[in-house]
Amino acid sequence: MFSKSDEKAHVVWLRITYQSNMGTETNINSVLTEMGVKIRFSYLDNTEPNGQGKYVLFTETQEEPQIDTINERLRGIEGVNDIESGISRNRMIHTVDFPLNFLGERAVITRSRTFLDILRIIRENVIQPDGLLLLSGLKGGIGAAKYVKGIMPVDRNNCMAILRELFLASGWGKLEMDFDRDTCSGKFRVRDSFIADAYGHSDLPVCGYMSGFIAGYMTEMMGYNFQVREVSCKSMGHAVCEHLVSPAPEGVNLEHIMKEEIQ
To answer: 4-vinyl reductase 4VR domain spans which residues (predicted)?
Structure first.
């Protein structure tokens, strides 16, 4: 996003690393307030390794020398390890740090329209496009589940709640579940699916990638193969996108669970 509050001011960014177990962020904020620094955007990250925290903020200054004064004061705070700063010549405010990391891997931010452009090209030029998209989602869901299992205790009791939060955190949509743990089958509903919202009208469901992701995630978490099929979609005029979830037939290879092969 871009700062529009004072077009004559310099948009300045600061990245401060500090010891998170010393209350250092409180002292940082006190110094910034004392110096009259008006924060336009900021975020804290106290999940860095070795007890380190990261404070990224964007502000505006009338003169470039003010940046050096701010840096000097901040470096004098006990617990501050390092400070990086610079000027955004194009007045751009970055809402995430670089390089962006998500689910343990390098990530990028892109508009949903870009994803949909790729999806449309696949649909128009590939044989069995829904199967390909489902398979791509399948691999993504398996990878996400493996990462989650590697960083926190996960079992059948909390894996569903984690999946719901992953959908929301990724901006994919709001996930609702009606799942029978005894039969391992049910319905997953996605409200405000980013795929369906950007795709526009369609005579067929368009969120096959999400179906695949859910299937891969469930398979990795539960320990046996799942199949997921979208049966209604917001792009078709429905209020929500609905995915049917059930165990895959015994003996079926996970990567062969495609819409064209299993109904």
So the answer is: 185-247
